[in-house]
Every structure is written in structure tokens, then in C-alpha cells.
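Researcher: We're teaching a course module on how sequence relates to structure. For the next exercise, students receive a sequence and then see the predicted structure as C-alpha cells, so they can try to spot secondary structure elements on their own. Here is the exercise chain.
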Amino acid sequence: MTSLSRRDFLRASAVGAGLAAFPFRAEEQVARLPISIQLYTLRDLMKEDFDGTLKKVAEIGYPAVEFAGFGRYGSKPQELRALLDGMGMTCSGSHEGFGGVKNNPAGRAEFIQALGGKHLTVPSMPKEFREGGKDGCRKFAEEMNAMGEAVAKAGSVLSYHNHNFEFAKVEGRSLFDWMLEVMDPKLVKLEVDVFWVKKGGVEPVEFIQKNHDRIALLHMKDMAKDNGTFAPVGTGSLDMAGIVAAGKEAGCDWYVVEEDKCREPALEAIATSVGNLKALLG
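Model: And here is the predicted structure for the students to work with:
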């Protein structure tokens, strides 16, 4: 089966607006380790068997999932919530395309709350902003501020997920620096993808520490020692112990495992990651 792109996977979530939110059950997460899995990692398996794949994720030991589209449950958050409840899992958040959030920030916030989560993350910067260089990134930050305010009023938290292009230098500063100068940390947080930070030439621990007031979530993926591609947490070259410690210090809500592409079978990869991450979180 061919692999779905992230954009196509997000498009699978054709959802309605104005859904009544269920209360966010933060008290139920007190006893849980703050570990989640970005289901984009399992996109091919999810396409074949949505419910069965979620069951396997629960059996492997994940207490929470981060969505990127909702498959056949796209307009039925109550049913998906019941499915997660029955498996003893919760929702740590969801990736939502920039356009979807901009068009209906309150509705998207309410939808994720109906699933039991509060984090709404824009997974990438649209092409029109990227092509604008420094000014485009600053315009994107302005748009995110407006969306973040609306999402916050609806009771959720908006974040931005990075890749490596944001670390390109313009006029002696990274595009990320230009963007964060405008982006209000009270309105927009970060889901820091530690692999892409490293690919951008920056040490993840240093980046987390520098932006400690913006950290909401961390995307945990390691970097293979032999060729620099994706690897399960704890098997590569990144300082995962330091990253976890920096995340704790910054008040990170969730450590979210993700591999864009897995060398080994995906379920084996995520099992390795959760085992090593549990050991690090202790």
C-alpha cells in the first residue's frame, strides 16, 4: 500500500463545526506517564484497520494518542472518545491543518475537547508563507496569534510544529527567530520536533531551554547513527535523556513519539520507543 502524505491524511478529517465539548479530564491523566503516539506514524495501518490499530497501540503500552485526521470517526467525536475510553487511552491532542483551524478555530478546539484533549497543533507552515522568507514567517506568526487567541477562548491550546527549514539563516538570524519575535508565547506554544531541530543544525536541549516558556509538547524521534534518518527513541544519536530533562524543566505536557518513516515494522518501532521513553521518564 502506498503511503499517505500528511496533507492527505489531514484531509481525511472532514468535520463539522459547533460540536458540544466534553469536559477535559485532566484529573484522569495525573496517574499516567505523559507519553503519546502521533498516529501519522501508523497511517498505513490506520487506513487498513483504524480500530484494530488503536487496540494494538494500547496493548503496546501507550496511554494516549495524538491524531492527524480521524478516519471514519471524522464527524463523530463521541464514538471515537468511547473507543479510546474502552481501551484505557486518552487523546493528547491533534494535528490540524492551518486552513482548517483558521476557518473555524472554536469548532476545532471544541472537537478536540470532545475527544478529551486540549492541544491543537498546526503541523506545518503553508507554502505561501514559507516562500515569503523572513516576512512570510512573521506574517504567519501574526496569523497564528489571531488563531491562538480564538482557540484559547474556546478552552484549548494552539501550538506550532517545526521542521528544519525554520532554522535557515536570513540576515544573520534564523527564520525561527524572526517568527518567534512576533509569535506571542501566551497565545501560541510549540510542539518541538527534536529530530528536525537537530537537522536544522541546532541542539534540541539548547532550543528547548531557550524557548522554555513556549514548550507545550515534544515530538520524540531519534536520529539513526549510521545515516541520519529516523529511528526509535533511545536507539540513535540524540541526547534523549537531556531532551526529557529539558522538557520536564520547561513543563512539557506530553512527549509524543513519532517516526515519519520506519525502517522496521511500525508497531515494533513504536514499541521500542515507548519502552525507552518510559525508562527515561522513570
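Model: If you want an answer key for the exercise: The two ends are 38 Å apart (CA to CA). The chain has a mean pLDDT of 90.
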